[in-house]
Design a protein that fits this description.
The protein contains six helices and 16 strands. It has about 300 residues and is an alpha+beta fold. It folds into two domains: about 140 residues, Beta Barrel (OB fold (Dihydrolipoamide Acetyltransferase, E2P)); about 140 residues, Nucleic acid-binding proteins (OB fold (Dihydrolipoamide Acetyltransferase, E2P), Beta Barrel), CATH 2.40.50. Keywords: DNA-binding, Meiosis.
Length: about 300
């Protein structure tokens, strides 16, 4: 690599249309599930080898993954990673929400021209990043190897709220709207009241088995609203959530009317960002309210985890 190609470290705020050959260091605050494209015939598994063409094999299948990054209290950006299926599988397993990473030699584009942005979380940067090792040599994502103090600074950003409490809406207002708010997105500040066991369901359209988890949320206005998690990343993360102790600031939670429960529920989709235990002054009063719930009511809610529906 010649001197002119040496990568320099840039911050999100320093990125512009002319930025090239740089490294961005950031903490992952949101992560999509990977998607794969192999051109496999209908009825064949996405990585099942095709005896007629090599293009449908695991080695030639490609995938995409989006990470949302933050490097300061103010700045966030989306990074879309394209690569062979093996590469995307590696990234998906190697990096999780809360990890500090180096984005090496990404391409920069204005967000308004990025097709993936409409399906990604809303960010502050007017630009988006793309990592594709087939178009830029050396483009890759690696774990950041920095001093403990630097890593601690980045991880502290995980608690910085992306929306202020005044920009949230009470759960009771969402429930009261009923099916009228179906499909809309809201910001909510809540306490985790119960975390139900993972369940599998077969999707009729694709005949694939999907895993999901239901989490019960509460705030000062409502005792329990169900939120459904379909993303593997969020399902794994939710295993760390402690009922009546973990608080969540959820940005762009999607409201959806659940015909089974006959009520409005919340869902996490590809635009949602969750901040665990956000650094906001309302946290103490919210937790105090959660602790004031009579024990027998808590037992009823938590027992839903074992109900076979």
């Amino acid at each position: 690599m010649c001197a002119s190609e040496i990568s320099t470290v840039k911050t999100i705020a320093q990125i512009n249309d002319e930025t090239r050959n740089f490294i961005l260091v950031g903490v992952v605050i949101a992560k999509s599930d990977p998607r794969y494209f192999s051109g496999h015939p209908k009825g064949r598994g996405p990585f099942e080898a095709d005896t007629t063409t090599a293009d449908t094999s695991h080695e030639t299948a490609r995938g995409v993954l989006t990470l949302t990054l933050r490097d300061s209290n103010r700045d966030t950006i989306n990074c879309t990673v394209w690569g062979k299926a093996d590469t995307i599988i590696h990234y998906d397993g190697a990096f999780a929400i809360g990890d500090v990473i180096d984005v090496n030699r990404p391409q920069v584009a204005a967000s308004m021209f990025g097709r993936s942005e409409q399906y990604s979380p809303t960010v502050t940067s007017p630009y988006c990043l793309t990592v594709n090792d087939q178009t830029v040599q050396g483009a890759q994502i690696t774990r950041h190897d920095g001093p403990a103090q630097e890593l601690q600074r980045f991880r502290a950003l995980l608690r910085v709220p992306l929306a202020q409490p005044g920009e949230t809406i009470p759960l009771a207002d969402i429930v009261a709207s009923g099916s009228g708010c179906n499909g809309e997105t809201f910001n909510v500040l809540v306490v985790v009241r119960a975390v139900r066991a993972k369940r599998d369901v077969r999707v009729a359209r694709s005949n694939q088995v999907k895993t999901f988890r239901e989490v019960i949320l509460m705030d000062g206005s409502h005792g329990g609203v169900l939120m459904k998690l379909w993303s593997d990343s969020y399902i794994r993360w939710s295993e760390q959530w402690v009922p009546l102790k973990t608080t969540l600031l959820i940005v762009d939670a999607r409201a959806e009317f659940n015909a089974y429960y006959k009520t409005i529920c919340l869902a996490v989709d590809r635009k949602t960002i969750i901040t665990q235990d956000p650094a906001v002054p309302q946290l103490a009063s919210l937790l105090n309210h959660a602790r004031s719930i009579p024990t027998q009511e808590i037992d009823v809610v938590c027992s839903l985890a074992s109900v076979d529906r």
